[in-house]
Amino acid sequence: MGSKIRLTTSQALIKFLNQQYIHVDGRESPFVEGIFTIFGHGNVLGIGQALEQDPGHLKVLQGKNEQGMAHAAIAYSKEKLRKKIYAVSTSSGPGSANLVTAAGTALANNIPVLLLPADTYATRQPDPVLQQIEQEYSIAVTTNDALKPVSRYWDRVTRPEQLMSSLIRGFEVLTDPARSGPVTICICQDVEGEAFDYEESFFQKRIHYVDRKEPSERELEAAVQLIRESRKPLILVGGGVKYSEAREELTALSERYQIPLVETQAGKSAVESTFRNNLGGMGITGTLAANKAARQADLIIGIGTRYTDFATSSKTAFDFDRTKFLNINVSRMQAYKLDAVQVVADAKVTLQQLYPLLEGYSSDFGPVIPELRAEWDAERERLSRVEFSRSGFLPEIKNQFSQETMNEYADALGTELPQTTALLAINDTIENDSIILSSAGSLPGDLQRLWNAEVPNTYHLEYGYSCMGYEVSGTLGLKLAHPDKEVYSIVGDGSFLMLHSELITAMQYHQKINILLFDNSGFGCINNLQMDYGSGSFFCEFRTADNRIMNIDYAKVAEGYGAKVYRVNSVEALKSALEDAKLQETSTLIDMKVLPKTMTDGYDSWWNLGVAEVSHKEGIQRAYEHKFEMLKRSKSY
Ligand SMILES: Cc1ncc(C[n+]2csc(CCOP(=O)(O)OP(=O)(O)O)c2C)c(N)n1
Ligand SMILES: O=C1C[C@@H](O)[C@H](O)[C@@H](O)C1=O
Ligand SMILES: [Mg+2]
């Protein structure tokens, strides 16, 4: 037996985190950058004491809301292409319950994050401790059990020595590209401070090798055959392309064999929008170009994608009678989808190996690509010039609000600014190497369709969970990952209201973030949805009890925190605010009042939703019938 070192469980945890390294493509780097904390009685005397005594290289950041700080950690890891993480330490009970939403976000997006919620007493001596839920059917159940369904790996440490096997398992999961996601290790609050004689070898430098999994010969042969048999193959670029850093291999293959690309939200900006074979976002929030190409395709090559309903228009985007699927994915589970020919391997290596094997091949898509792109560019140009008028105005979302209601909004919010016009002005004005982030509401759809990311990896959309509240907190993680870049949170008023506490954390640690707040006074996209499916406008607008549209001074809120703020209601004011915001050293917020119904509408796409089967409203009955028409042409699994 080697020598031993006596440490508390928490001291051992922090010492271990300092010794984790990741090794990818011959490059080795520390895996854990730091730790976010909100101290409560459950962690301040254990993990808090250990960090105060010796944090090692870990940066310690104080969060303001557990969900928010975990979202920041998730965005950081996503930006670091899953090769570096922050840990998150919370107290027990409500502090850990606040992690559930964030854990779901990390899980749905396959993003590694280490969650360290405190747990109730292992000895049970003081039970029920403060904030213990006291579940009647089992004393062993605590709030932290709620994290099980949203964790990739979950454990409870009830003795100091259990920490060793728990952490080793946890880091194996965190660094596995096929399974990475949230790892939750709950440590009983008494155990956090208890000591044990740990073997020194536990704290040796550990290198987690992420070797690229190669495709087998059989897989390559099957893939080549499928592509050669296809006349119109289309590559669906998922997030896996980014994580595999496969941009060069993908563009080379696409260019050489004339295979166009379409993107999921997670895959967008893996390849720059100016790449001539890039047809943009596909699916429910996709472009007309991408959705038309999908309908024409006879082979979909899905790379690193989960094929969510948004990406596939609820499995109606393709002609399933003739379209085949080839899936390249490190996850076997994902590769199995849509009865595809499976290549369970790393994207970059697979594309490298496919390239020479397709020699002599050329798809029939070649001449169609520039036509589709030109058609979409014209539509994008039109959307950049939408202007409101007080009579005869036809917003993008049609037949929902009368002109009278649109005028009422213009008066109440003091604006005539349409959302698409504002968004495209932003795209034109900010530097093209700055990074934007969004996650929920109508903006992700507009962004996937309209945002031109001219520089790779400058578009960060959390659309696996589409979690409101990720926007501001995630942008803090973005800035921590890219201290030298301008970063922009693109957020609706609803999402801003749900959670923006980490703006204060950003200010506290001099991490400049820019918040571009689109205030349309309501849950706009859901209001569109309910009205599109035959309902009235019901509880989605922000109206007072006496039916007045609310006009909230969000700029004043951020000003109160110390941010530099701007109030804008025209394109000119927006552009000058953006220019001035670039010059600031502190965080900024631009409070943009925009008109409802002026976001983009769908382009040849459909979404399967739970429409009411019984209703006296004709519109709802029609929507229900339409659903079954659409299901006739969809794949049923
Ligand atoms: C945490 C969470 N709760 C609820 C939802 C459902 N939801 C999706 S978008 C939305 C409204 C968003 O409103 P806002 O941020 O103002 O964006 P808008 O659609 O008006 O552009 C809601 C409630 C969600 N995505 N996330
Ligand atoms: O229900 C939803 C509808 C989507 O349009 C939106 O972007 C997303 O946030 C959501 O949750
Ligand atoms: Mg809104």
From TrEMBL:
Q: Which residues bind thiamine diphosphate?
A: E66
List keywords of the entry alphabetically.
Hydrolase, Magnesium, Metal-binding, NAD, Thiamine pyrophosphate
EC numbers on record? 3.7.1.22
Return the SUPFAM superfamilies for the record.
Answer: DHS-like NAD/FAD-binding domain, Thiamin diphosphate-binding fold (THDP-binding)
Q: Where is the Thiamine pyrophosphate enzyme N-terminal TPP-binding domain?
A: 32-133
UniProt keyword NAD present: yes
Per UniProt, residues of the Thiamine pyrophosphate enzyme central domain are: 220-354
Q: Which residues bind Mg(2+)?
A: D493, N520
What are its cofactors? Mg(2+); thiamine diphosphate
The record's region (Thiamine pyrophosphate binding) falls at 442-522
Q: Which GO terms describe its biological process?
A: inositol catabolic process; isoleucine biosynthetic process; L-valine biosynthetic process
Reaction(s) this enzyme catalyzes, per UniProt: 3D-3,5/4-trihydroxycyclohexane-1,2-dione + H2O = 5-deoxy-D-glucuronate + H(+)
Q: How is the cofactor bound?
A: Binds 1 Mg(2+) ion per subunit. Binds 1 thiamine pyrophosphate per subunit.
Q: Is DNA damage one of the keywords UniProt gives this record?
A: no
Q: Which residues form the Thiamine pyrophosphate enzyme TPP-binding domain?
A: 440-591
Which Gene Ontology MF annotations are present? Answer: 3D-(3,5/4)-trihydroxycyclohexane-1,2-dione hydrolase activity; acetolactate synthase activity; flavin adenine dinucleotide binding; magnesium ion binding; thiamine pyrophosphate binding
Q: Which CDD domains does the UniProt entry name for this protein?
A: TPP_IolD, TPP_PYR_POX_like
Pathway listed for it?
Answer: Polyol metabolism; myo-inositol degradation into acetyl-CoA; acetyl-CoA from myo-inositol: step 3/7
Enzyme category, top tier = hydrolase
Cellular component terms, GO, for this chain's entry?
acetolactate synthase complex
Give the family, as the similarity comment puts it: Belongs to the TPP enzyme family.
Q: Relate the protein's function as given in its record.
A: Involved in the cleavage of the C1-C2 bond of 3D-(3,5/4)-trihydroxycyclohexane-1,2-dione (THcHDO) to yield 5-deoxy-glucuronate (5DG).
Q: What is this protein called?
A: 3D-(3,5/4)-trihydroxycyclohexane-1,2-dione hydrolase
- The organism named in the record is Paenibacillus mucilaginosus 3016
